[in-house]
Amino acid sequence: MQPPLDPRGVPVALRRVSPETLKEELHTVLDLSGCLARFRAGSEVLIKPNLVTDKPEYIALGANTSVEVLAALLEILRDHDCRVAIGESDTGTAVKGRRLAITWRLMGLDVLAERFGARLLNFSELPRRMGALHSRFLSEVELPEAAFECDLLIDIPKIKTHKYAVLTCAMKNLFGLLPEPRRIVYHRNLHRIIAELALLLSPKTVVLVDGLVGMEGNGPLYGKPVNLNLLLASQDLYSVDRAVCELIGASPRQVKYLCLAERLGVGIATTPSLVVGESLEACRRPFEPVAFNPYRWFEKKLMESPLVHVVTSEWFQRHVSSHIAGLTQRLRGGGYSWYLDEK
Q1: Exposure of 217 in the CB half-sphere (CA atoms within 13 A)
Q2: Contact 237/182 with Cβ under 8 angstroms?
Q3: Residues 68-92: pLDDT tens digits?
Q4: pTM, whole model, 2 decimals?
Q5: CB-based contacts of 157: which residues, under 8 Å, 6+ apart?
Q6: Which residue ranges form the domains of the chain, and what is each CATH number?
Q7: What angle do CA 158, 67, 184 make, to 5 degrees?
């Protein structure tokens, strides 16, 4: 039974932090938001960070959830005697993509997990279960069994602009739960799936936003880092994303999955987020949006067409994409890792 919510709205806790006070402020935002009360001894907790890259240069720019936030959270969960797993899915194919094992090693998450007795889960390698959706375009999607079996799902997104979705934060981070490495084949229904996942998983989900370093411009991977030094927490996915839109000067009406979530009953647009701690206005820092790029527009349209299954196949990537990788990286403004020589 989760604690009652404020009748004025679902609280979103917002705090400025420094490296010296990170754990204390993280504890504070979890407490102010009501999330801390849901950390119960013996409960199965699944942490879903945002681990989008295994390239050191992008990790250094803050593309992934920070190790410092994960370490502070793991310490608090240990203090509450929770059983913890950290999970993410692979991305791409055997030729091109993001290897989760490499990300764990580069970020030292394997060592961190061992230190706190947490398990590292690669959803792409574990049992799956179908999750029912309400969409007439897609009635169900595969999800990891861990998402159904945990008592509490802690969503730890970053604050970043997104080339296809305008914003990536609380709701968008749930898309990474899909264990299919070629998640891009779902992009035709991207916004609908994000909204549906929020509806499906919100009863067991709390959000802790890693706002230490955000990303503006060509996000969610190739953009410019923004030092925000913020943490946010809430028991409501929609309220967090609405608050973050205000923080970075983005219109919620431009974020399609937020509009769809409202129609599904995930959030109510006329009810402002109840922000506690710092004020949104005092922390506001407008982000540079993703600029229009003809190649990225073409790429988006291609990914939303049936041809996505061809251009993301291993054969096409090995025999076609690999030969023009330098060109596409320049046109796109960045590129994924390649593994052509890996057996």
Answers
A1: 12
A2: no
A3: 999 999 999 999 999 999 999 999 9
A4: 0.94
A5: 50, 65, 168, 169, 170, 172, 173, 207, 209, 210
A6: 11-292 (3.40.50.11440)
A7: 45
